[in-house]
Amino acid sequence: MKQPPIRHLLDAPRDDWYVVEEQIVFAWNELGYVTIPDGYVTDGCSVPKPLWGIFPPMGAFLVPGLIHDYLYESKEIEVEKGEKRYVYRFTRKDADAYFLKLLHLYSPKTRRRNYIRYLVVRAFGKAYWKKAKLVNLSNYQRAFP
Known about the structure:
This is DUF1353 domain-containing protein. It comes from Runella defluvii. This protein is α+β, with helices and mostly antiparallel strands. It has one domain. The strands form 3 sheets. Strands 5-2-1-8 form a 4-stranded antiparallel beta sheet, covered by helices on one side. Helix 1 packs antiparallel against helix 2 and helix 2 runs antiparallel to helix 3. The longest helix is centred in the last third of the chain and has 21 residues. It is globular, with a radius of gyration of 15 Å. The mean pLDDT is 82.
């Protein structure tokens, strides 16, 4: 999967929010394909700014972070396999395991740091899992290229 085009989101409550400009289709393990719609709002890999030098939120980590955020916020996904479509509800552990798999796929040379990212979401992700929800894009403006 290539890096999706994103743009900075104007007037958002945080300065690290971005809008995905094209839908993203990805394979959900062996179950089939999932689509993240264009207009989805993400912060890439959620990393505190003081740690960006060691754990950058963008670049090779954008797609894993974006998909992980989407899984946390949606709690279920519509999976398409052939002509069949069905809804798959998953656990936080499923989302975190897929995050680690994507980290290794997109940044295979940083396996230790990938595993640290995974351990951090396992240790601290529970609170976000409980409160996470999709952002309503109509409340904000998209930035210009």
